[in-house]
Amino acid sequence: MVSEGSIATDGSSIIVPRNFRLLDELERGEKGIGDGTVSYGMDDAEDMLMRSWTGTIIGPPKTAYEGRIYQLKLKCGMDYPNLPPVVKFRTPINMSCVNRETGVVEPRLFPMLGNWRREYTMESVLTQLKKEMMLPQNRKLVQPSDGNGDERLDQKALAIKCCIM
C-alpha cells in the first residue's frame, strides 16, 4: 500500500481524498491513542461530510492541568486536510495559545495550526496541545473553574470516571 504523500512509481505523489483521510482518522481515534490521555471521534454520526469532531485531553501530571478533563470541538471544513481544523476548547482553560473568551485555539499562537501541513492530523493537534500544557509558559497558569464541582480528580478517581464514560 502506498501512504499519503509518498511517491508513486511514475514520480507523482498520491493525494488521499478528504473522506478517505477522515475515515482513517476516525478509525485511529476509535482505537485509542498512546496512553489514553488524548482521544477523539465524530461528534455526530449522521454527519456524512464528517465535519464535526470532539476531542478529549486529560491534563498532564505536574501541571496546573493535572486531574482535569478538557473537552474540545474540532471543525473540519471541506478543504481539510489542506487547511487546518478550527479547534475550540469547550472546557474553560487558561493557556497561552487559547482565546480566553471564546476557547478557540489561535493559529497565530499555536504553530501547528499556523504552519499547517497536510500530513498533520487531529491526533497530532491534540497531542501537541497536551505538550503545550507542559511548556514553562503554561504549566503553572491558574486555571478557571470548570463549573462542574470536580475541580481536581485524583488519579484513581480519574481512571474510574474514564472507565464509566
Care to describe what's here?
The protein is of the alpha+beta class. The chain is 27% helix and 14% strand. Strands 1-2-3-4 form a 4-stranded antiparallel β-sheet. The longest helix is centred in the N-terminal third of the chain and has 14 residues. The termini are far apart.
What key attributes describe this structure?
single chain, 165 residues, alpha+beta, four-stranded antiparallel sheet, 5 helices, 4 strands, 14% strand
Short description:
This protein has helices spanning 18-31, 111-114, 122-133, 136-139, 155-164, and strands at residues 38-42, 52-58, 69-75, 86-89. The chain is an alpha+beta fold and 165 residues long. A four-stranded antiparallel beta sheet has the order 1-2-3-4.
Write the layout of secondary structure elements.
Blueprint: H1 18-31, E1 38-42, E2 52-58, E3 69-75, E4 86-89, H2 111-114, H3 122-133, H4 136-139, H5 155-164
